[in-house]
Predict the structure.
Amino acid sequence: MRKKMMALVMAALMAVGTCSGVTVSAAELVPAAELEAPAGKTLRTLPVDQAAEEPIKIASICVQNNPWGAAVMVGQNFAKEVLKDRNCTVDVISVENFEAMNWTSTIENCIASNYDAICIFGVSDELNPVVDQATDAGILVYCFNGDLPDTQRTAWFGMDDYAAGVKAGEAVKEALPDGGKYAIITGDFSVTGHEKRRTGCRSVTDEVKDLELVGEYENNDDANQAYSLTTDIITANPDLSALYVTAGGPSGAAQALEDAGMQDKVTLVCHDVLDAVADYIASGTISVAIDQDPFNQGYEPVVCAFNKLVADQDCEEINTYDAVIATPDTVKDLFPELFE
């Protein structure tokens, strides 16, 4: 791995000046077949082994207010490194939160900056107008996590969030065969993906008469807010039996349960197997975690955009990632890199 990364760095150094029109010969490329993904990751798509004839620019945008966003950025930055020697500049751009106005202005700035492609978290259909503005300007748009199917976006990458929510609901139902109280903490009611998970869960739990939903709350993907909300929920409902966190911040919920001595009494279901929650899963504080491959959500759209721009190579329009279900019994086998 060290040799391969050194080769990437050397190739990147040889590619200095591409923004001024200097092209890179095929001999200077690190062949895609020789690329090695970070530990525990799989490269779903490989870049074509050719450099752009003219310098190209790709913007990849995501939120950075939670560990999931950080995991997406790892994929974005990996794509940035592997494309450097192919006459391609990738700019990784952060948006503070999920407010559509912030996303719209960021995408408008990318349009004005003449990017060749933009990769975005499809936060909500409030972004439809600016996405169509980008595509009307001849810019390729690739969505990840949340889809914007009513736009001219080129492709989408991610997990079926409604189906993942159904899995979460089934986990709650299975954990409470005799019924009981449960609560839901979601990231943001305005975020399409979060809503699909929440409603997917409730499509199962609402059909079980002995399951009582005591409340649904927003934590803005923030672990500290999840901690405070969980503390308030179990204070008001000391007989709580399950908690579902649809988005960011499950580590805060897990810590609140441990601090209250409730980790063995409340079934905690969440998403994303990351450093922040790995130990909570292994210890059993988190009973079920549904992973959605954030690395590839950051990496794959960028590489697919490059392949289309340089070699007119199309990808599938809909790229659905299978959910990986981690439990205390399986998490170390499924994600050994988190426990090394």
Notes: Confidence is low (pLDDT under 50) at residues 1-24. DSSP finds eleven helices and twelve strands in the chain. The first strand starts at residue 56 and ends at 63.
